[in-house]
Every structure is written in structure tokens, then in C-alpha cells.
Amino acid sequence: MIFGLPIWVFLCIVFIFISGYMAIRAMRAEHNLEQEYIEREGQVYLKRIEKEKERRGKRDAMMSE
């Protein structure tokens, strides 16, 4: 007996803490993956906007001539 508890109760408590730690670690990893995805998609969107501005700028320059 450890701390007056049967060994199986002590092991259950330890496994609960390990499970909580693993859940928190998984949430952090998932959060990082989501942030990377969001940044990648944001870059794609900004490039698309930049191309559209260039296209409109060329069209406006041709119309003003």
C-alpha cells in the first residue's frame, strides 16, 4: 500500500494524470497545426488579392491611354 491506498487505486490516479497530460499535449499540437494551415491559406488569399490588383492596374492603365 502506498500512502494508505491499494496499488490499483494509486495506478488509476497516475494514469488519470498521464491521460490529462497527453490530452493537453495533443491540443497544443493540433492548435499549432491549425495556425500553420491558417497562415498558409492567408498567404494564398493575399497572393490572389495582389494578382487581382495587378490585373486591374494594367486594365486601368490601358483604358486611360
What would you note in describing this structure?
- Pfam families: Spore_YhaL.
- This protein is mainly alpha-helical and 65 residues long.
- It is 89% helix and 0% strand.
- The chain has 1 helix and no strands.
- The protein has one helix at residues 7-64.
- The longest helix has 58 residues, at 7-64.
- It is rod-shaped, with a radius of gyration of 28 Å.
- The N and C termini lie far apart (92 Å).
- The mean pLDDT is 90.
- Count of separate DSSP helical elements: 1
Largest sheet: none
Low-confidence stretches: none
Task: Sum up the overall morphology in one term.
Answer: rod-shaped
- What is the straight-line distance between the termini? 92 Å
Percent of residues in β-strands: under 5%
How much is the average pLDDT? 90
Helix content: over 70%
InterPro entries: Spore_YhaL
Protein name: SigE-dependent sporulation protein
Pfam families: Spore_YhaL
Keywords: Membrane, Transmembrane, Transmembrane helix
Which SSEs are present, and which pair or pack?
Elements: H1 7-64
